[in-house]
Amino acid sequence: MSVNHILVVGSGVMGRGIAYSAALGGYQVTLSDISPSAIENAQNEIEQLFAKDVERGRILSKEAKDASSRLTYSTALQNSAALADFVIEAVPEVMSIKKDIFEKLDQYTPSHTILATNTSTMSPTEIGSYTKRSDRTIAMHFFNPVHKMRLVEIIRGLETSDETLRITQEVAYQMGKETVGVNEFPGFVTSRISSLVGNEAFNMLMEGVGTAEEIDKAIELGLNYPMGPFKLGDMVGLDTRLKNLEYLHKTLGEKYRPSPLLVKYVKSGRLGRKTGKGVYNYT
């Protein structure tokens, strides 16, 4: 089976980044969302990203123009799904939302279509159970910002076929990504480590070990991380970080209990860059 048309469901930060990378990889891409305003915002952000990458010399002007021409935007999931050879779902990390999307995708897509979930913690086996094609369901964990981050974790479900794994790896490579295969277990590899580091940083901030700036600087310069845990959390979204920790706490135990300070930030609406204020102020 060859993949020509990719459908990305969800036009948030991850969805638009995946759509951008897939279009640059040569695929026909549809980015779908139920919200017309979200789609309009995503289109504007993607066009700005093309312009910035051309300006910075990352891609040629013709590459950007060709990739942009391969991208379409839609609020009609059923119509878009009918054309897809490969779907990448990028909706929030809430199982009930993913269940609804995958049940619809199972109805709307052709029988050959592979259904992938972009998730940092959740089970592709469980998500596959919401379809009649668990052998063609798989998890792809992209990293933010998608157009810069080279890695995709690929996680097979219990019934994911070898062919589905092979095609998924080919799609990731075509998008310019490196892949690692991970056995299904809550949090996979990177989310378990990142969640622990980010959560411990909040505990240290709460205890007065240092300021956010000092803790980030210590991690960046002392451990050679490209970005400190607070900068990363603000970029990913503190609500997303909290959801991941809650899931890992439930599935893996006490060491993932969310820091009370992180919970307080999320309750106050300080979610990071997307709200203008998280650990740092972006207004």
TrEMBL record:
SUPFAM superfamilies: 6-phosphogluconate dehydrogenase C-terminal domain-like, NAD(P)-binding Rossmann-fold domains. Residues 187-282 form the 3-hydroxyacyl-CoA dehydrogenase C-terminal domain. Residues 6-184 form the 3-hydroxyacyl-CoA dehydrogenase NAD binding domain. Pathway: Lipid metabolism; butanoate metabolism. Pfam families: 3HCDH (PF00725), 3HCDH_N (PF02737). Keywords: Oxidoreductase. InterPro entries: 3-OHacyl-CoA_DH (IPR022694), 3-OHacyl-CoA_DH_NAD-bd (IPR006176), 3HC_DH_C (IPR006108), 6-PGluconate_DH-like_C_sf (IPR008927), 6PGD_dom2 (IPR013328), NAD(P)-bd_dom_sf (IPR036291). Belongs to the 3-hydroxyacyl-CoA dehydrogenase family. This is 3-hydroxyacyl-CoA dehydrogenase. It comes from Fictibacillus barbaricus.
